[in-house]
Amino acid sequence: MKKLLLLTVISLLCCTKGLCQRDTVNFTVDFSEAHRNRFRVQMHLSVPNGEKLVDLNISVWTPGYYQVLEFGRNISEFRASDLRGNGLPWQRTRDDQWRIATGEGGRIHVSYTVTTERPFVAVPYIDKDRAFIRPTGIFMYPDKNLDRTVIVEIMEHPSWRNIATGLDSIAPRTFRAGDYDILYDSPILAGNLTELPSFRVRGAEHRFLGYQMAQFDRKSFMDDLERIVRSASDIIGEIPYEHYTFLGLGMGNGGIEQLNSTAVAFTGDGLDSDPANRLRTLSFLAHEYFHHYNVKRIRPIELGPFDYSRPNRTRGLWLSEGLTVYYENIILKDAGLIEPGQILEDWQNTIQGYENNAGRKKQTLAQSSWNTWEDGPFGKRGETISYYEKGPIIGMFLDLAIRNASKNEKSLNDVMRALYYNYYREKDRGATEEEIKMTCESIAGQNLDDIFTYIQGTGDLDYQKYLSMAGIQYQRTVIADGKSSVKLSIQPTLSILQKEILGDIFGY
Questions:
Q1: Could you give the CA distance from residue 126 to residue 37 in angstroms, rounded to a whole number?
Q2: Do residue 473 and residue 381 come from a single domain?
Q3: Whole-angstrom Cα distance, residue 164 to residue 273?
Q4: What is the pLDDT of residues 113-153, one digit of tens each?
Q5: Which of 41, 81, 344, 470 has its CA 20 to 30 A from that of 176?
Q6: C-alpha distances in angstroms, 156 versus 29, 36, 167, 412?
Q7: Is the whole-model pTM more than 0.90?
Q8: Residue 265 and residue 356 share a domain
């Protein structure tokens, strides 16, 4: 109780310092129960005069990870009071919603506890060594009122020295988000973190802070990461943020992209001794970094603004995820970090994996996106497909077709730039399926129905038609149990156009 009163006093002091305004929601996060894997959260918000009820929600999912996560089940010890400390009646109306009887409105105070279960990039976690705040699982929002400014104060932990986040700092251990969408897109990592050498690209500072990092050549690694950022930003032609932060979460799997940060499972172990591991790590980081363009800004129209109370479905993850996978090797190639032979081998493995999945005859690429909430991001092999596998193949077909039709004067890069500037920059929204197709065809200068049919259908893909545009021969041999072996090789004789396309996509 003493700690609760102390946190309330601190939050009130923040208000007197000008950090608490009528349309601002203030949070204080307390790490004092880290040893119990619990966050203590304080929330202050205003309720319009005369409004007798307010609903507070917790998100049921987190953008970038298309699965229902049921954050509400981890919340307990919920309390509500007015600023005089008088308790306010409340009831839990849904697993993700709390309804408070506020009387006649005014500013109210809420407190609750978040219990965490496991360290994973999509969920919050805290223990005696570090805290990872996945904001969707920590911070409640006023129902249908996501445009409020949010101030987050992190209480000091006696033995932790670092905080890493993409949020703007406005005071020591205090951060500001212009609205809830920005807050929910800005995870926070706290603990005894290692900071790697920073770098600047196009005037923006890029930092990398991580938990339990191994020993490796940090300068060399960050030099490679700088090459990746330069290569990716050259595709679009600008950087849309003032600063960017990589958050290394330690051992684990996966990563989730944000507007100006990414949270990734990373230790750096084996970077110096294992070239294949280093390349996988750099490819993984290139993928997550390029997402700040493709999905956070270039996106299917369904992916923002979000409804955090239910799954947000789209048929367009072939664009958001599939094309981001396609750009991994493009970015690494332009950065000088991958050999041409490795690119061709990667494509050979991708195509062979797709062709040996019986799910390709049962589910379309558009359906794999729509049903990812049930099937998972990688699908159910044999029954469904993954947009991570078929999506980049469609991206390659589009790039090859556009380059071939335009005599290599245009490419998929022009499509990405057009979607970025025409829809994100000018219209401040995503693009519809029709607008995405129209943009591709406008850049190509020709109809692309054959490729877009592959998104909506389950027919066989004509690899030879498109790969031959880069002078690549496709061979598929049936081996045992209906499985196939795929071989890609460069044709002995190439036209000037084929040589140009082969070099620009595959690095030869």
A1: 5
A2: yes
A3: 28
A4: 999 999 999 999 999 999 999 999 999 999 989 999 999 99
A5: 81
A6: 9, 17, 17, 48
A7: yes
A8: no
